[in-house]
Amino acid sequence: MNLRLVHAFLILLSAMLAVFFGLWSLNLYVRENGGGVYLFAAVVAFATSFGLIVYDRWFLRKTRTLR
């Protein structure tokens, strides 16, 4: 496994971790009957996950010709 694929895999794992954190924050938001901090954390986590996926796709496209 080359460094390019390791980097892409770690970015994908980071995006998955951000999704799980967002789901956990939403769960706390529902359980606490409010609490804007949890909702804000969930929104930021989902936005971060989306950004990481976009970055991962860009990175793989940009480094496609590298071996």
Walk me through the structure.
The chain is mainly α and 67 residues long. It has one domain (3-62). Helix content is 84%, strand content 0%. The chain has two helices and no strands. The protein has helices at residues 3-31, 36-62. The model has no long low-confidence stretch (mean pLDDT 93).
Over the alpha carbons, how many angstroms does the gyration radius reach?
15 Å
> What portion of residues is helical?
over 70%
Low-confidence stretches: none
Tell me the series of helices and strands, N- to C-terminal.
Answer: HH
How would you sum up the major sheet? none
Number of domains: 1
Secondary structure: number of strands: 0
Q: What would the average pLDDT be, to the nearest integer?
A: 93
Q: What is the global morphology?
A: elongated
Which percent range describes the beta-strand content? under 5%
N-to-C CA distance: 11 Å
Structural class label: mainly alpha
Instruction: List the total number of helices.
Output: 2
Quaternary state of the chains: single chain
